[in-house]
Amino acid sequence: MNDVELGALAADIALEAGARAKQRRSEGVALAATKSSLADIVTEADREVEQLIRDRLHAERPDDGFFGEESGAEAGTSGLTWVVDPIDGTVNYAYGIGAYSVSIAVVQGEPDPQRWQGIAGAVNAPVLGELFTAVRGEGAWLSGSRLSVGEATAAGALLGTGFGYDPATHEGDLAMVRRVMTMARDVRRMGSAAIDLSYVAAGRLDGYFERGLKPWDFAAGALLVQEAGGAVTGLELASPRPMLIAGGRAVHDRLRGIIEAAGRAD
Ligand code: IPD
Ligand code: CA
């Protein structure tokens, strides 16, 4: 399969997986477990949807690796790995808020975000009825329209962010929000990193930053932003929770400058 065909497969599976997640939500939500903290939940649907994605990939791409939020990693032999978040925004999902998504990316190289190269990605938000897709070198797309990142206006940048599940990190994250407010017109915390990044690609957010994301949260979304003409970088601050920064070039650079200065001051 070429890159475009891999992208079509990611999109097709994300559509099927999103439909299943939405159907299961309409039938009610069963919590399966808590993970890193009481706030970090996994539902039965997270597991079922990841299994659906894994089974389809296994049938169609048996030599590729797999790296999923719920069922872990399996090495492949082709040099390609599928990086999957079956439901990104699980807390929204559990509460009946429609801002959740299925995120599927296929990457080349070592299954480490510092080293891999994104080939294609799809973020499907089934309740919002939107499927965002990107293929390297071919752009980022939503419903037949090519996406491009926005740039801040004189009114400042509309920024997205998120917070991890560990209450011990909230104070530091909120202090960072206070610092970036100097360049913001406002801040959104929507609850799905994959949707946040898709919105940066679509120019609905000017920039996004979050600490402590996992590779499956941003694998597809980062490619969307890059293919929409934006920049995505990682930053190691003093704590072991790396920071992801995304946006149009000017917003990204300004955001990164503020965050780096704050990191030095901490
Ligand atoms: C979470 C969401 C949320 C972000 C958290 C992620 P999950 O993923 O992307 O927006 O703030 O850091 O863990 O747990 O819903 O898959
Ligand atoms: Ca996630």
Named once each, the bound ligands are: D-MYO-inositol-1-phosphate, calcium ion
Strand order of the largest sheet: 4-3-5-6-7-8-9-10
Can you tell me the number of structural domains?
2
Low-confidence stretches: none
Rg computed from alpha carbons, rounded to a whole number of angstroms: 17 Å
Kindly state the number of beta strands.
15
Summarize the amount of helix as a percent range.
25-40%
Please, what is the CATH homologous superfamily of the largest domain? Answer: Fructose-1,6-Bisphosphatase, subunit A, domain 1
The CATH class label of the largest domain is Alpha Beta
Average pLDDT metric: 92
Short description:
With 266 residues, this protein is α+β, with helices and mostly antiparallel strands. The chain has helices spanning 3-26, 44-60, 90-95, 170-180, 193-201, 215-227, 249-265; strands at residues 31-34, 41-43, 65-68, 72-74, 80-88, 101-108, 117-125, 130-135, 139-142, 145-146, 157-161, 184-188, 207-211, 231-235, 243-247.
Tell me about this structure.
- This protein is an alpha+beta fold and 266 residues long.
- The protein has 2 domains: 3-146, Fructose-1,6-Bisphosphatase, subunit A, domain 1 (Fructose-1,6-Bisphosphatase, Chain A, domain 1), CATH 3.30.540; 157-265, D-Maltodextrin-Binding Protein, domain 2 (3-Layer(aba) Sandwich), CATH 3.40.190.
- It contains 7 helices and 15 strands.
- The protein has helices at residues 3-26, 44-60, 90-95, 170-180, 193-201, 215-227, 249-265; strands at residues 31-34, 41-43, 65-68, 72-74, 80-88, 101-108, 117-125, 130-135, 139-142, 145-146, 157-161, 184-188, 207-211, 231-235, 243-247.
- It has an 8-stranded mixed beta sheet with strand order 4-3-5-6-7-8-9-10, with helices on both faces. It has a 5-stranded mixed beta sheet with strand order 12-11-13-15-14, sandwiched between helices.
- Helix 1 (3-26) runs antiparallel to helix 2 (44-60).
- The relative contact order is 0.14.
- The mean pLDDT is 92.
- The structure holds D-MYO-inositol-1-phosphate and calcium ion.
- D-MYO-inositol-1-phosphate is lined by residues 69, 85, 88-91, 162-164, 191-193, 210, 213, 217.
- Calcium ion binds next to strand 5.
